[in-house]
Amino acid sequence: QSVLTQPPSVSGAPGQRVTISCTGSSSNIGAGYDVHWYQQFPGTAPKLLIYGNNNRPSGVPDRFSGSKSGTSASLAITGLQAGDEADYFCQSYGGSLSGNWVFGGGTKLTVL
Amino acid sequence: QVQLQESGPGLVKPSETLSLTCTVSGGSISPNFWSWLRQPAGKGLEWIGRVYSSGSTNYNPSLKSRVTMSVDTSKNQFSLNLTSVTAADTAVYYCVRGPRSSSGWFDPWGQGALVTVSS
What we know:
Distance between the termini of chain A: 28 Å
Largest interface: A-B, 28 and 22 residues
Radius of gyration of chain B: 13 Å
Strand content of chain B: over 45%
Largest sheet of chain A: 6 strands, mixed
Number of helices of chain B: 0
Oligomer: heterodimer
Shape of chain B: globular
Number of helices of chain A: 0
Strand content of chain A: 35-45%
Largest sheet of chain B: 6 strands, mixed
Order of helices and strands of chain A: EEEEEEEEE
Helix content of chain B: under 10%
Order of helices and strands of chain B: EEEEEEEEEE
Strand order of the largest sheet of chain B: 2-10-9-4-5-6
Distance between the termini of chain B: 39 Å
Helix content of chain A: under 10%
Structural class of chain A: mainly beta
């Protein structure tokens, strides 16, 4: 049971826009801690995709964007491409009582 | 560009100690925070703990009684020891840089090391 909740799967056709939600609580996301997103292809390590809620590391296309509001965050992918098919994880801090960095359970993106 | 590489046994017997080392290349291990995370097959990510280049540590409370991390700045390496392992500790273990603060992130990541706990 992950501290942050993500849908197990989302799908979309090439060119479409999809969003992946990440729901936390008043102890973590709602307490003001930043949310970060990672992309993971099968058999490889996760890669930082979005940091600080809505910032893209160098080399990440602007088709990827993040947002945060209240106790939730979202990752949006526009102009969906076959190469975007991967697992996506959100991450934040569990709060001062937990002393833990926490992740969502991951969302499998399928490009139809 | 900083790169990380995990090394260590791929098979550990139940009740024994899992030991992994991460070698940092392309940059100095100091001053910085370094973490270990793990991912069981088909499952999500779990933060195990963090070590600063000075040697100070933070551990996941759920694993704290079994985890020890250390740094060897002369070799640009940091290490993980996990004692009394069971099959539930079977996972891919990643070494990563960060996080620098409570709102911090993990980047970059090592390629991962599969550790299987089995007799």
